[in-house]
Amino acid sequence: MIPYLTDAEVRAALSWDELIPAMERALAALSAGSVVQPLREWLTIEEGERYWGVMPASAAGAMGVKLVSLYPANAGTGVPTVIALVILFRRDTGEPLAMLDGSALTALRTAAVSAAVTRRLASPESSVLALLGSGVQAATHLDALKRVRAFREVRVWSRTPEHAQRFAREHGTIAMDAESAVRGADVVVTATPAREPILRGAWLKPGAHVNAIGAPMPNWRELDDAAMANVVVVESRAAASEESGDVILSGARIHAEAGEIFAGTKTVPSGATTVFKSVGVAVEDVFAAQLAFDRSGRIAVRR
Q1: I want to staple 5 with a disulfide (CB 3.0 to 4.6 A). Which of 9, 39, 142, 204 is the partner?
Q2: Residues 188 and 288 in one domain
Q3: CA distances from 31 to 9, 36, 40, 198 (A)
Q4: Is the pTM of this model over 0.85?
Q5: Residue in 50, 34, 35 with CA at minimum distance from that of residue 285
Q6: CA–CA separation, 75 vs 72, rounded Å?
Q7: Could you list the residue range(s) of the whole structural domain that residue 158 is in?
Q8: CB 252 within 8 A of CB 234
Q9: Is 145 within 8 Å of 189 (Cβ atoms)?
């Protein structure tokens, strides 16, 4: 049997200090054309409620596939809306190396990517963070973003006010309505399964930075057209143009890929209001999984 890393083992193996730079390397490699990665393939089980996806990627040092269930129908049931498994393979022989629970890995790599982008695009003086959404991604983003900016105030909103209030108690943040949370915020995170915009561009202060990580389908949105009219950065032009409703429905112009910014081949105008629209790409999962496996101390059993 090949090793299996549980959710707890994945969390124990990954640190922000290593994961954030690993995500920079993954996306720089993607933008440089040194990653083999087709677009994610979704199997629609029930439109709007149940989807199953396959995400393979191969790059120098890591190869694998993520199998992911996106089930908005699970909301409120106690079963996660996103459930995933990552399988690593040896790139030289094709032999399986390990399987990893993908729940923690997905949450951590997503927040690490946002932190890497925020470090490059958000004002160094950023002090107010707004979280639209109060679930697992909001919590991991709060933890990761505190590694790259010193926030004196963190605000949170949820479509369910009780959830926002609970998050505020548990994390020392302030629960408020969405507009109040966003106005004056230096960094904003949208982490919801919204089908219609929850963030209005008119609320954003000039020079703010947005990490938009929810609404992962081509007909779902978190941001309105005014928000998407700002400087837009994505992980992959191909993936965002195919999968992101925020990009597709707004007709937004993509300024750069994150990997181009990490590599220094693209820049963003100083003082610009920026939007990082993340859809999640397989190379992030594979690099994060390889890092977790390497740091876990587990050894693959050869057959």
Answers
A1: 9
A2: no
A3: 30, 11, 17, 30
A4: yes
A5: 35
A6: 6
A7: 115-281
A8: no
A9: yes
